[in-house]
Amino acid sequence: MASYPVVVIPGDGIGPEVVAAARRVVEATGVAIEWIECEAGAAVASRGGPPLPPETLEAIAKTKVALKGPIGTPVGTGFRSVNVELRQKLDLFANYRPARSFAGVRSPWQDVDLIVIRENTEGLYSGLEHVVVPGVVESLRIVTERASRRIVQFAFETAKKYGRRKVTAVHKANILKLSDGLFLKTAREVAAAYPQIQFDEAIVDATAMQLVINPHRFDVLVMENLFGDIISDLTSGLVGGLGVTASANLGTEVAVFEAVHGTAPDIVGKGVANPTAVLLSAALMLDHLHEAAAGQRIEQAIRGVIARGETVTRDLGGKATTDEYTNAIIEAMQKA
User: pLDDT tens digit string along 234-285?
Assistant: First the structure.
């Protein structure tokens, strides 16, 4: 059986623990993976190297697929976000963040099923900042027709692929009339080519409120970088938090699947970290590799174990260790 070469980046903090769990679960599906372990993050930077080593970037560009654990980013000082650098250098223009409720997870809603599509390469995260005069900093927000068009097309193609009924363009064009005006104009043009899928528009602050009040009015949401960063975390909160949501960063040729939660330094090495987010991201990876059935087996096993609540980690209301929880998921897969 041929194997799929996949770069694996353990990351910082609990990253190595949860990524190790993901590797075990993926291997239990029977899909052959050639894991190519590479480094990135604070641990590399602490040894004086670049937080995103060139050899890591080259390996991902070669294999075209990577699975990544959480990576710490200093706040206000220090090195630039590795996540942002990866997305820009590999042109991973689309962030795909599903948010689907779990039976057995306490959350504000029990029947949420949303997808947030976020433009990944420009906006305020272009990183174009400078000091105008001491005490005054200017940051440039870049919006282009090219990036707007391809992210909205990606959103409609996603809706088409998964049988979704509606795409909502989220914006602030009432205030940012040129930049978000361009995004919204482009979104309308793209929507016209997909008459079978409903299209609507929503201002970002109203969207945030409506998601809390009635998330069922939305289906697939598409937006620029900063708005997507915020709204995707909000939708994760509707289903239990970042610990139970997957993430994929997709380009024309390369895909990086990752856990988007933090590095949890307070529980490093204690064996109690919840690997669900990276497990679900690994399931998305298998779907990307045309091993959809294996990915579905992982998600179904996770959902079953969490719903039973007998062998879950403490953040999910149980007492299981990372290994015990992982073992329960593998056992559920084998029984399916």
Answer: 999 999 999 999 999 999 999 999 999 999 999 999 999 999 999 999 999 9
Set 162, 205, 270, 319: catalytic member: 205
pTM recorded for the entire structure:
0.93
Q: Are 73 and 83 in contact (CB under 8 A)?
A: yes
Separation of alpha carbons 240 and 271, rounded Å = 21
Residue of 12, 180, 219, 229 marked active site = 229
Which of 217, 222, 201 is CA-nearest to residue 154? 222
Q: Which of 98, 105, 59 is nearest to 246 (CA)?
A: 98
Flag whether pLDDT at 75 surpasses 70. Answer: no
SS3 call for 35: strand
Residue-by-residue DSSP string for 308-326: H-SS--GGGTS---HHHHH
Look up 96 and say whether it is catalytic. no
Q: In the predicted model, is pLDDT for residue 130 greater than 70?
A: yes
Helices (H), the chain: 15-28, 42-46, 54-63, 82-89, 145-161, 179-191, 204-213, 225-238, 276-288, 292-308, 322-335
Dihedral over Cα of 27, 30, 35, 39: its sign: negative
- d(Cα 114, Cα 220) in Å, to the nearest integer? 6
* Residue 97 vs residue 44, higher pLDDT: 97
125 tagged catalytic: yes
- Of the pLDDT bands very low, low, confident and very high (cuts 50, 70, 90), residue 79 is low
Q: How far apart are CA 284 and CA 141, in angstroms?
A: 31
